[in-house]
Amino acid sequence: MNDTPGIVITGGSGRMGQSLVRAVLASDKCHLVGVLERAGHDWVGKDIGTAMGGQPVGVTVTQDPIEVFAKAQAVIDFTAPAATVQFSELAAQARAVHVIGTTGLSDNDLRAINAAARHAVIVRAGNMSLGVNLLVKLTQQVAAALDEDFDIEVIEAHHNKKVDAPSGTALMLGEAAANGRGVALADVRDSGRDGMTGARQRGDIGFSAIRGGDIVGEHDVLFAAAGERIVLRHIATDRSIFVRGALRAALWGQDKRPGEYDMFDVLGL
Fold first, then answer.
1. pLDDT score of 1
2. Catalytic residue among 158, 159, 161, 234
């Protein structure tokens, strides 16, 4: 009998899902107890190893979250907002750590997740990498040190299959910049420019999104004033950095009290 934490991966057929499955199977600190896919998906009912083009591993892809959550100590979830909200309720009922990398969550989604966190550990982050979370801290510090003579622009690039913009990481960086300046991002956010938009407003925090090819993730925070610019940058070249962070979060949460945490907590930042 395996006494390491049992992990469920949601959205197992996706790029992140498959990377997470491989990482859990290769780890000696946890083991795979379930893989979820949406109802009617071709992989449902197949061994996940076979579905991914390899050897059977003894774990069958299912569309029933209740069945697999009951066996899990942690659920790692990079799916879609509606699915994540449902999973947060079910993971809380199972008292399983819920690691959420899903982006594009609405205020209503976040309220539902916060309610689930009263009963179980939830670790939610727009980005699971150590480098990005350090960048968030640096962004807040630089924004606090500079006045509104410096315009702030968050520029992000991702692959052409990404469905939300700005990215969750870009919004994390925007929030950090707003916190550094002591303002609410909702009051100074400037995104989706097109056409005759007029001059930029002093103090606004802008967002620019690029989509193309197979870009894993690139984020710049530009501080631009008359005569000088400061650029903070993070470039991801391999999804394994997000996978490592998500697994670390799943293991970190095993002995924590119910509540909503982020990667700053996991990384001790």
1. 61
2. 158
- Here the CATH number for the domain that contains residue 57 is 3.40.50.720
Establish whether 162 is a catalytic residue.
yes
Task: Pick the catalytic residue from 31, 46, 119, 162.
Answer: 162
- Whole-model pTM: value is 0.81
Same domain, 135 and 172: yes
Q: Are residues 120 and 243 in the same domain?
A: yes
Render 4-38 in DSSP notation, one character per residue. SPEEEESSTTSHHHHHHHHHHHH-SS-EEEEEE--
Give the CATH number, domain containing residue 194: 3.30.360.10
How far apart are alpha carbons 140 and 19 in whole angstroms? 31
Phi, psi of 160 (to 5 degrees): -80, 0
Which amino acid, residue 229? R
Residue 159, sorted as left (phi over 0), alpha (psi -120 to 50) or beta, turns out to be beta
Range of the domain at 114: 6-124+239-267
Q: Please tell me whether residues 243 and 220 are part of one structural domain.
A: no
pLDDT tens for 85-126 read 999 999 999 999 999 999 889 999 999 999 999 999 999 998
Residue found by looking up tokens 């400061």 in the block: 230
Sole residue written with tokens 């939610």:
124
CA distance 202 to 253: 41
